[in-house]
Amino acid sequence: MRDIPVGNGTLLVNFDDKYQIRDVYFPHVGQENHTEGFPFRFGVWADGEFSWVFSDVWERKLCYLPETLVTDVSLNNKQLGIAITSNDTVASHENIFLRRVCVSNLRSERRNIRVFLHHDFRIYENNVGDTAFYDPETLSLIHYKKHRYFLINTEPHFDAFSTGRKAFRDQDGTWRDAEDGELRGGPITEGSVDSTLGLHFTLEAEGDFEFFYWIAAATSYDEAAKLNKHTLERRPQRYIEQTENYWRAWVNKNETDFADLPQKIVDLFKRSLLIARTQIDNDGAILAANDSDVTERATDHYSYLWTRDGAFVANALDLAGFSHLARKFFDFAAGIVHPNGYFLQKYNADGTVASGWHAAWDVQGKKQLIPIQEDETALVLWALWQHYDKYRDIEFANRMYRRLVISSADFMVDFRHPELKLPKPSWNLWEDRRGIHTFTCATVVAGLRAAAKFARLFADPDRADKYETTAEEIVGAMKVHLYSPELGRFLRSLQFYDDDYYEADATVDASAFGIFYFDCFSPDDEMVVGTMAAVEERLSVNGGIARFENDGYMRTAGSGTSNSWFICTLWLAEYYIARSKTKDDLAKALKILEWTADQALPSGVLAEQLDPVTSEHVSVSPLTWSHSTFVATVINYLQKLSSLDDGN
């Protein structure tokens, strides 16, 4: 699990809950994790005693300075008699990770203190062929391989350093060398290497010592040296202050009227925008989650763009007034769409196709399959129209219509079951089954209606008619084939075992919220009311909502209860908002927003799931989709509140 990420869209640095740097992504968010999740250690030697801050003897509080992407960290070791406060950030517009550290003496005598900072780079995501060395030109430590350079320095200048081998035979690394308070390694090491630097100082009785530490990330030695020089000339404290000011201005640029929302909801709204920004690459990819711990159980990770997640996040950013980020996402999407008009499962931050498990070949039927989740295509068009409708950038919209909308909408028109008139089987949004899913159908309706609006806008009436007609046919077919009068609610899906044989899947699934959210049916329609009542009744878990009945993903052994998901819980709030006729009706939605704020980590981070027994965060964190859904739900709440105030 990850806490307090800091980044600028090119360089992303993640910490774990022990205040260890665990991920360093560069030059794309989510692509090239130059640590592979191994920790950078931070230790203190005091009068012959040594302790790493990951030890349980340290009390830790990991937060951010309000409305910023600058951390506010407190570390306290009563046994050692040392307290530390730290501020970490990545410069807003340069690829420099910066840290301010203040070490305080809790005892009433003068003491000799040494602080050690350790670096376990695995450049290009492997530990073969790295070099770590002391550079007399820049007076810094540098790790490099090929086109990746990481320059490390401090002010005042560090007093000792060591480079050495790690994870090789019986060598743990230079961090072991630090535990006696001395560093004895060499000035250069190649292969599987690490490094540690030390600062030595005296603390007066109950006195303090402040220093600054930074890592400049670059694609060449000259660039790294230039960033280091710039930091020294500009002063690291000023860099941190300017970055703090930038993010505070950024998150408040739209001056949102939060009405009478509780402060904890306002705080999480702003924190969610900031955290979401750390997960968005400057080239437009919106990454699902950058938490490398997941590789231990899955041999893969979440550092990918799923265009479904991306579309939801882009829409939330649009609602909150951050159109430039959404526009970059749509441009990115237009560059990766398949020539046949659909999106594959997921993509890397540089636009290349990522790993996947959706087969393109039916082994038993001996025929080709289209390996997609069709909602990923439909939702991009839906979000794109929402973007245009709010900001009216006609030239951008015209470019997207030609590059993206036509091919995707034409694909969705053609990709239909000949008898059922519904979209053909594809994978669902949870990626665990193939069929015709209620959620997918709802998104396809929304995507086709969006395409029709674009076609009308650009005087393309034949296409507009075709897209509108298809959308309405799907809505009609949903009533016939996906709604169960006996159950009084929508089915989850028609589960296909091959293209000719399927069964109704009546599992209650939170994604059914799509039937009203995408305007297929009114939130007051009895079919919707019955469906959402089942979601609330069957999926409630300690204040939250699970994905679907008997969901075993990441479930605690023996608990027998599925985990709640932040996004699913907030979808129920969206239903309450959509149905509200008076301010009092909004109380249920407000309760969910407050519950979400209460469940966030002290830093404001939201994971993917919550354990139903311990309420601990589960799976990856932060999950970008969790934060964007909170943002969207708050905006929709405020818009409904405003409309009720106006008497509309």
Descriptive overview:
The protein is α+β, with helices and mostly antiparallel strands. It folds into three domains: 213 residues, Beta-galactosidase, Chain A, domain 5, CATH 2.70.98.10; 134 residues, no CATH class; 201 residues, Glycosyltransferase (Alpha/alpha barrel). It is built from 16 helices and 31 strands. A nine-stranded antiparallel beta sheet has the order 7-8-9-10-18-14-13-12-16, with helices on one face. β5 and β6 form a beta hairpin. α4 crosses α16, α10 runs antiparallel to α11 and α14 packs parallel to α16. The longest helix is centred in the C-terminal third of the chain and has 22 residues. The mean pLDDT is 96.
Secondary-structure blueprint:
Blueprint: E1 3-7, E2 12-15, E3 21-28, E4 31-33, E5 42-46, E6 49-52, E7 59-64, E8 71-77, E9 82-90, E10 96-105, E11 111-119, E12 130-135, E13 140-145, E14 148-155, E15 160-165, H1 174-177, E16 188-191, E17 193-203, E18 208-218, H2 221-234, H3 236-251, H4 263-278, H5 295-298, H6 307-320, H7 323-336, E19 361-362, E20 367-368, H8 374-391, H9 394-414, E21 426-427, E22 434-437, H10 438-457, H11 461-481, E23 483-484, E24 489-490, E25 493-496, E26 502-505, H12 514-517, H13 526-539, E27 540-541, E28 544-546, E29 564-565, H14 566-579, H15 587-599, E30 609-610, E31 617-618, H16 624-645
Antiparallel strand pairs: 1-2, 2-3, 3-4, 5-6, 5-11, 7-8, 8-9, 9-10, 10-18, 11-17, 12-13, 12-16, 13-14, 14-18, 15-17, 19-20, 21-22, 22-25, 23-24, 25-26, 27-28, 28-29, 29-30, 30-31
